[in-house]
């Protein structure tokens, strides 16, 4: 089966170049030029991944991504000329699976697509993870402690789920960056910040929540 991509990009020359190359290497591509057509394309049956530009003529690509994330876990790669750290962080925090700054090669785009598709189809894991009072429903993408839901951002949830899938196992910052952010070129401070947030949210629960332990010089583990 040819993976089906939604390409949401308003620059016709760039979009046609991308679509031609992606179709040449084995993808089916639906192209949309604005947020209205993009929304329809994102919810089209059979779409496996979206490539989303942020600067669209009738709205913000980030708002389109935010709306999608309220109902769907469809993998999304943001492509944008906005390369500042704040822009990349905003896209990833809202729920992008990867962020690619223009200009880039078509080969790199294809490699990123394959990597995100692999991550979006992990080996079978239990639908429910239980670590002490922590319960993670992978199907619903919800976490709770002693029955009380945790309000988590997408990356916070992904980090907690990864740690909870292997309690007491130590994960390095590079492993966490590669699995959750899609690349280890992100600074380890990104992991430190998310661990800090998670610890705060776990500490504020009324139940006996598991704790995230720092193993100095190695990384992090989740202890019941």
TrEMBL record:
OmpR/PhoB-type domain boundaries: 126-224
Residues annotated with 4-aspartylphosphate modification: 53
Matches recorded under Pfam families: Response_reg (PF00072), Trans_reg_C (PF00486)
Coiled-coil intervals, chain numbering: none
PROSITE patterns documented for this protein: OMPR_PHOB, RESPONSE_REGULATORY
Domain of life: Bacteria
Domain Response regulatory, first and last residues per copy: 4-117
Native source species: Streptomyces spinosisporus
Keywords: DNA-binding, Phosphoprotein, Transcription, Transcription regulation, Two-component regulatory system
Protein name: Response regulator transcription factor
DNA-binding region ranges: 126-224
